[in-house]
Amino acid sequence: MKNRRCFPLVAASLMALSSQAQQVDFNIASRKAAEVTALNFTPVGVKQGNTYQFALGGLEITLDAPVKDQIIKSNWFKQGIQLGDRLTSDGIVVYPSKGDNAQLRITIRGLKPGHHSLLAYHNIVDGLTGNIPSIQVSREKEQIITVKKGKKRIQQKSMMQEILAQDIKQTVREMKASQSGQSYIEFDVTDDQPVVIHYQLQGVDNANNTLTINGLVFDKANPKATALNPYPTDDDLHVNAEGGKVVLRWQAGEGAKQHLIYIGQRADQLKKVATTEEAAFEVTGLSSANDYYWRVDEVDANGKVSEGEVWNFRPRRLAFPGAEGYGRFAIGGRGGSVYHVTSLEDNPENPQPGSLRYGITKVKGPRTIVFDVAGIIDLKDRLVCSDPFITVAGQTAPGKGILLREHPFGFGSEGIFRFIRLRLGKYLDKNGKTITLDGLGAAGCDNTIIDHCSVGWTIDEAFSSRNGKNISFQHNLISEALNQAGHQNYVNAKHGYAATIGGNVGSFHHNLLANNEGRNWSMGGGLDGAGYYAGKLDLFNNVVYNWGNRACDGGAHEVNFVGNYYKMGPATSMKYILNAQLEGTGQGSQAYYMHDNIRQNYVGDMKQNAGAVAGKHGELVSDKEGETYKYTTSHGQVVNWKVFTDKPFFPSYAKVESARAAFKNVLSDVGANQPCIDQHDQRMVEETLNGTYKYVGSKTGKKGLIDDNLDAGNDAWKEFEALTDRRPANWDTDQDGMPDWWEKLAGTNPSAADNNELTDGEYTQLERYLNWLAEPHFITSAGNKLTIDLKQYFAGYNQQPVFTLENSIQPQEGKMKLNKKGILTISLNKKAADCLIDIKVKATDKDQVASLQRTFHIAITRIPTRTECQTGGRK
């Protein structure tokens, strides 16, 4: 590359940015500003009328339609907004009357004397075709004219229109601001009089005689002369900067001969790092812990400098080891504060410090939420995480952990949510009617990962992610959605539903769905803003057991359905594991890639599932259209495309296993098994393994599909109701989320908060601890003996399992012994030093269809600690 250099980011004197320009984004008034406002712009939602006034910084701006009967209103191109163009896919529109040219007058008060510029974007959001009128821009300017009055000539003031720009083309539904129609004018202000700018259409087209302005920018360089369309795109927080390097690129401004490059870690403190002749520059030394800001100023042949926009990006990094799929780069609370949940109380009207609700709704900024108590939190109202950049670390709770009850919990964007347990239950309102509530939710989330959570006993559905983007839902357990439970809209219907999922792309893998009547899964792709089928779903390596009359159905634009294991149970009455429902509600297509899925037949008591299958009990049936999957049409849907394809639509960004391997590995590690697996989840795993059931629906009589939590004797609550585990006051002296015993082993300072200090692996010290807790772990002292039943950690390997130690501990630490029954004994020397030990164990069994390696963490410490629930242990 010509004149390309590398520059490592180092501490140095920084150059201050120029004063920030005022920028306004005209929004459709009926939508929330957060949904439709462009980054770094001030939102203004204009309501319909012939005049509108608003403040912008120190300016007072009035919009009005000067021609009689013309109106100003806001409008949008919904699909453009959904695809990320929040600036030019909505705006204000002047609609004419009686064939007159549409006009808009903007009166600006408060501009300081001096030279100014005004940029306006003109991108029509209506789907117009044909001739589009251009725009003329003029300024009202006072002039002195001489007029004859009788025999005398006198001078008087008069207003004229000074044309500043003309023949400005309006674009139609262009979804990139740099390519949209633009007018750029410059003018001088000499006094405190208002500046009045007119925008008027040139020529009349009866069909398209509308004038659109999407946004205004004051006092910035002409965008035609500035750097545009950066890579990384502005505010990209998941940039691939492998090796700490990324090549910055941009579209050079018109006539640019040189490019002045500024970089820093704050927007208002940039350092000039290079002058190049090429529109590219490699920067090195990047860290995923930092945000980076950069600007390119363009220099033309005459030496004129056009200052560019300030852009920012952050290098990506896995949310945690083992994060996979399209939400794998979620940031969570990294680099933020630590909030300790110290109370099981919940007060929706007045959240109290120490409660979970306070940490979710009242604390601000990026944050990690840890738990110092165990037991049941009865949510008195829906709990919604509206803020981005939050980690909720359920694995930090003492004892058996936390269980949420009564109301749902909704997640937020850029969130990391792990080891959360929610079992809602059936409740009645004051009129004796069932309160209809769902469970966990990620609707509308972007870059979010939900990992190792357990949810059940819900009414409506246990999980929803409609309209989500870049979501990963992995290693979770959805079970026993309450079936005929009195749903408010379907009082006597069977409505025990697992999940309605959306995403673009949504990754749903290595989950267990057990004993749910339907929606295993329901694909809720929906429609985009233009009415086309939407949604991209990656469904792989899931295990589903004992569904009722619905397995996976619904629809989305593109679906990979790979390596899933559907095991019929005593309540199953639907043989199709996937029914693509083409419902005629949108335009475009819905298509599916089916590969390596298995249906395991159940041919036992056929009273409930009569006619579901014919064949041998336990027989494994591979993908076959018309036998294991199909599509159905309704509402006049015309199918003029290939519904089932032979190639995947997109990569999975994960290790995709065979269906038989997934069955074993999912059942070995699923649900909220930290700090330990509870009896309910153990039962779900065992019933799935053995093809059995314990409880029967009290209304439906369906085996395994309960209608009320009382049908199961409230067993999922009982073991948590009497919990009193609480961290002692000296557990975490500096309140940085890491206990003192850990900090001494990890080499950090227990008396000074160092949770955000980076480790060698680019994770923070707090993240290192959280990741340690997320795998099987044991806390003990020198001289002790640990006895670990490995079968509990590899439950899916139940056919004469064989365990292999992949490494050993050092002789000075102790000895290990593994017997044929899978019992691992670790005898620690009395003089063993305090340290952290990792032991890797691999499991196989006689089926020889899969293997699984898991890491067991051991902490040897002389600092007294509470007895923790050993991961996978069955207390």
TrEMBL record:
Q: What molecular function terms (GO) are annotated for this protein?
A: metal ion binding
Query: Which InterPro entries would you find in this protein's record?
Result: AmbAllergen (IPR018082), Ig-like_fold (IPR013783), Pectin_lyas_fold (IPR012334), Pectin_lyase_fold/virulence (IPR011050), Polysaccharide_Lyase_1 (IPR052063)
SUPFAM superfamilies linked: Pectin lyase-like
Signal is among the record's keywords: yes
Keyword Iron recorded: no
Q: Which UniProt keywords apply?
A: Glycoprotein, Metal-binding, Signal
What does UniProt give as the signal peptide span? 1-21
Tell me the protein's name.
Pectate lyase
Q: Which organism is it from?
A: Segatella copri
